[in-house]
Write a structure and sequence with these properties.
The protein has about 110 residues and is mainly α. The chain has helices spanning about 1-20, 25-30, 35-45, 50-70, 75-80, 85-95, 100-105.
Length: about 110
């Protein structure tokens, strides 16, 4: 069990350090020294979420922080959080928070 915990910690640290960059499942699998297929099964079994779900949630969490704490334009925040497609960012942000990033920022 502790070996699994250490492996998950490596992946979480990798995400924290690299979330603003494009990250693939294969990139994360390299951190664990697993094949991509084995990594995907392992991560889902250990966390209950897919790696992409975890990565997206991490990015959205950081974006929500920046929306409240900075005056950067929303498109800049999306880019800083690893979203290279602005429309996709808006769509997943609304799905997660129930409102647009602009409304989230203003609290309305």
């Amino acid at each position: 069990q502790s070996q699994h915990e250490e492996t998950i910690k490596k992946v979480i640290l990798f995400v924290r350090e690299n979330f603003a960059e494009p990250i693939t499942v294969a990139d994360a699998a390299v951190v664990t020294e697993y094949s991509s297929a084995h990594f995907m099964r392992f991560f889902k079994q250990e966390t209950g979420r897919t790696f992409i779900e975890y990565l997206t949630d991490y990015r959205l969490g950081f974006a929500s922080y920046l929306l409240k704490e900075s005056s950067d334009p929303i498109s800049v925040i999306a880019g800083k959080c690893g979203f290279d497609n602005f429309s996709y960012f808006i769509r997943v942000f609304k799905r997660r928070y129930g409102m647009s990033p602009g409304k989230y920022r203003t609290g309305r």
